[in-house]
Design a protein that fits this description.
The protein is mainly α. Helix content is 68%, strand content 2%. The chain has one domain.
Length: 244
């Protein structure tokens, strides 16, 4: 009798292991609880955004011109101390720090873009084509970084929520989600995927291979395309006019 019960228990354990293995194979990595993505990519891009802000003409920045970049570096240092190697859900204040950091970068670049556009319309900016193109290019590139951060931070609740696999419905549909056979089994979107999404949306002014699914994702992509279009059209038109 004991032998039969032991055999039945062993059979049940094997079945449970098979079911667990089958679940891991069926459920993709981006819908499961996984390890947090490395922090180096988002850290490097944020540092690039700070450098671009400091390189802009000081008259376009909120005064004092060094205040927001300094705040951004302090906030970034706090995030690195809290999660030095990977973006993982440790404490709630880390997400608050990340959101404040993105707001600071967005405010700095948005202010510079508005000042540049107003100056171009009033004729007080853009006397030399070379510096104008460099300034417009810096604002445009920072705009790509800004929206990449927002996409990365809000898709399925942000990187910390995605690690836990809490949100099953994606806000952005990547190719690997539609065709899992085209990617490794452990594939899931990281910051560089959102950076690519932001870049293509700023250059094509429309979705390319990543489709927005939620309403907020569609509105955010529409806003980015509008800002990019206005910046590119005004800067290029003024530069061409100067060269002629």
């Amino acid at each position: 009798m004991n032998d039969r019960m032991s055999e039945a228990e062993n059979r049940l354990a094997r079945i449970e292991r098979l079911l667990a293995d089958g679940e891991r194979e069926v459920v993709p990595a981006w819908r499961r609880a996984t390890q947090g993505e490395p922090r180096w990519a988002v850290t490097a891009v944020i540092l690039l955004a700070v450098v671009l802000q400091l390189a802009l003409p000081h008259r376009l920045a909120l005064q004092p011109y060094w205040a927001l970049p300094a705040l951004e570096l302090v906030l970034l240092a706090g995030l690195i101390v809290g999660n030095p190697r990977r973006v993982e859900p440790r404490t709630r204040w880390l997400r608050v720090l990340g959101l404040v950091l993105m707001c600071a970068i967005s405010l700095a670049n948005g202010w510079a873009a508005v000042r540049l556009v107003v100056g171009l319309v009033n004729g007080t900016e853009g006397e030399d084509a070379g510096p104008l193109l460099l300034t417009g290019g810096g604002i445009w590139l920072t705009n790509v970084i800004v929206f990449a951060l927002w996409y990365w931070e809000w898709d399925r609740g942000g990187p910390m929520a995605r690690v836990q696999g809490h949100h099953q419905y994606a806000d952005f549909l990547f190719v690997q989600m539609q065709s899992p056979e085209t990617a490794p089994q452990d594939w899931e979107p990281t910051f560089l995927d959102y950076l690519y999404l932001s870049f293509t949306n700023s250059t094509a002014f429309s979705p390319t291979d990543v489709m927005p699914l939620s309403r907020w994702a569609k509105m955010l992509m529409m806003l980015q395309s509008s800002v990019s279009l206005v910046t590119v059209v005004l800067v290029v038109a003024r530069a061409v006019n100067i060269l002629h």
